[in-house]
Amino acid sequence: MIRKKKGNGFYVALFLCMALICWAFPADAQEIGNWDGDFINGSPPEYFDFPMTVSQDGLVTLVTTCDNTFLSVNFNYLDVRDQNLNRIGSYDIIDVSPSTYAIPLAAENYTVRIGRTNDVYGHFNIQATLSVANAGATETENNDVIGAASTNVNNLFAGAIGHWRMKDVKDLSDYYRLTLSGDTNVHFAITCSDSLTSFSTSLSVKSASDVTMSYTYLSATSLTWDLHLAAGTYYLRLYTADYSKYGGYTITTTATAAVSPSSETENNDTLAAANAIKSTQILGSIGYYRDKSAGGTEYWDNSDYFSCQVSQDGTLSIEMLFPSTLDSFNNAVSIRDSSNTTFDFAYVTGSPKTVTVNNLDAGTYYIRVYRATGYGAYQINVSGDVVIPAPKKGNLGAILPLLICD
Ligand SMILES: [Ca+2]
Ligand SMILES: [Ca+2]
Ligand SMILES: [Ca+2]
Q: What dotted CATH number matches 30-132?
């Protein structure tokens, strides 16, 4: 028989078929143990131990098949033991064959013990299978406390909680670090196992000092969560307070800068900390949530101050453009003097909004954006008799003397 050499097309097709099969039929539970033994009527041993390695967090199912002479409602048991041979959680009574027992276990080494306490006897077989909680897990255990938080590429936070590690010890808490370089609209898309959904399972955003700033519940297998966070380092914590809950979860993060480039250097919340404008166009953002423990007195960015120089008998005019998320009679933009007295203001409603003050003495004046509700980016176009300082010499300044020497 003449065999034709298969072209690349064949392998591409084969790969596509395999990919389709894998997609259509997710990896089944994998066998991690298959053990046999015989209890002898009236003679030892009274139990058998089988080592079992769990490679990833998941649900381990133990199916025991045995002779009728071993069946009992009182005199036999099957359990999983930890590294100290202490029983973890509950156990199975084998009163029917086959008998099924499932227990969520973390990645560890365990011992499966089958035993008897009376003269039940006969042959048994135990099959152990592992159904991995999250094949795409990105967490690095042990991440139970804030100091051990994982940092993940692209802020993809995927893991599992609720699995036993040893007697009386479960993985109930996973921490992740999230660092933002500026005001950011953060969108979390969360999926989790049905066995984990609960109003006792929470996802919280925490400050660097481990104080909960906001939280949501994993009350459904798919949900979204939107936060508006200021620059800083935050921590995400997955936690379940319900011992019956376990499973995998995946959180994908979409982080969108509120404004880029920003004209602001926070914290600019007071007149004394005003940002001197470097251009007649100001780009800023307000209403973003902060980690108060990292400095500042308020959780929210509620005030932005900018300063500018106006020439003698001058006019200062500002035009503010803003999105609907900031549009409110609770928010205002104003022009102020150096004693923080308001000359004129406008509510942040119906973008764009203009404020103009005339006949100013030469000096420094201030623009204040104040927000009580909402969040978002804004643009302020400054006009009138405003003196913008020449930009500071950067690298050019360092190069110039060399040119002169030449
Ligand atoms: Ca975990
Ligand atoms: Ca701001
Ligand atoms: Ca501010």
A: 2.60.120.380
